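Figure 6 in text form: structure in, sequence out.
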């Protein structure tokens, strides 16, 4: 028995029936409520596995709650680096889809985006195909997307504030575009950012991506390089993403978090947040909600 192992359930509607049922199924001896939307199930004789874990997941999904199985809990201060994807992770939109919408091309571009995020298409090729469709679009359209459509994911600023208090460096690494990551880095006080550069001539998009495309391999490389600069093992990194092109960097980190992610990503992540906002990340490491 690991006396520190526990299960975390987070959600807006944590009914007594949900909590008691999950505790009984998990064989938890203790129930610790941390506010109205967070519960720790403690006193586990063993961490649930197999069918039991699947049933617990099903119970929580039905109640629109997230469940995390924490076998070896460590505080947020144990970690040194947080690496995040941008589109549909730190922010609510896929920027390229919204850019395409201004040219009435959103259905075509969104279909390619979705296939790439599911891992059905090579990411660099999918990006080139999507960007090529944007040729001739005025740069002002990017400003319009940033000002009118880009929104932070719920809880993003709370999560980043907790990261800062715990002393973590923050890295935004995206298969999207520097036009957006540069602005978010400045706005949110992120330490570093890496993304793709759009070709621009005479105030219009050329339909090309300049330089190396930030794909799954580059995302992993950026995480490892950031760890090297800090002089820490990748086990001291937390990675957060939603798509197949995030898996390589998530696999390299000590803890990976799938945020409203595709099934292939949820299946491989340490934890999955599918019903809450990004403010559900710090409680996984013991931070008060």
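Output sequence:
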């Amino acid at each position: 028995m690991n006396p520190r192992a526990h299960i975390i359930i987070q959600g807006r509607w944590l009914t007594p029936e949900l909590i008691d049922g999950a505790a009984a199924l998990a064989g938890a001896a203790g129930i610790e409520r941390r506010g109205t939307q967070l519960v720790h199930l403690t006193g586990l004789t063993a961490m649930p596995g197999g069918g039991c874990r699947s049933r617990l997941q099903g119970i929580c999904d039905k109640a629109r709650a997230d469940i995390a199985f924490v076998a070896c809990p460590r505080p947020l201060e144990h970690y040194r680096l947080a690496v995040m994807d941008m589109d549909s992770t730190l922010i609510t939109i896929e920027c390229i889809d919204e850019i395409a919408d201004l040219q009435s091309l959103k259905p075509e571009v969104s279909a390619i985006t979705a296939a790439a995020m599911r891992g059905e298409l090579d990411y660099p090729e999918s990006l080139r195909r999507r960007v090529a469709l944007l040729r001739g679009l005025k740069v002002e359209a990017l400003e319009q997307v940033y000002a009118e459509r880009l929104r932070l994911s719920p809880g993003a600023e709370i999560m980043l504030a907790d990261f800062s208090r715990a002393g973590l460096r923050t890295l935004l690494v995206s298969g999207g575009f520097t036009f957006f990551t540069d602005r978010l880095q400045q706005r949110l006080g992120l330490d570093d950012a890496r993304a793709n550069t759009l070709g621009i001539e005479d105030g219009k998009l050329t339909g090309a991506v300049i330089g190396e495309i930030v794909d799954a391999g580059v995302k992993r490389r950026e995480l490892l390089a950031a760890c090297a600069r800090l002089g820490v093992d990748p086990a001291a990194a937390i990675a957060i993403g939603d798509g197949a092109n995030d898996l390589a960097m998530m696999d390299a980190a000590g803890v990976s978090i799938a945020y409203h992610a595709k099934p292939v990503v949820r299946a491989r992540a340490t934890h999955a947040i599918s019903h809450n906002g990004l403010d559900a990340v710090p409680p996984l490491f013991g931070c008060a909600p």
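Caption detail: The radius of gyration is 20 Å.
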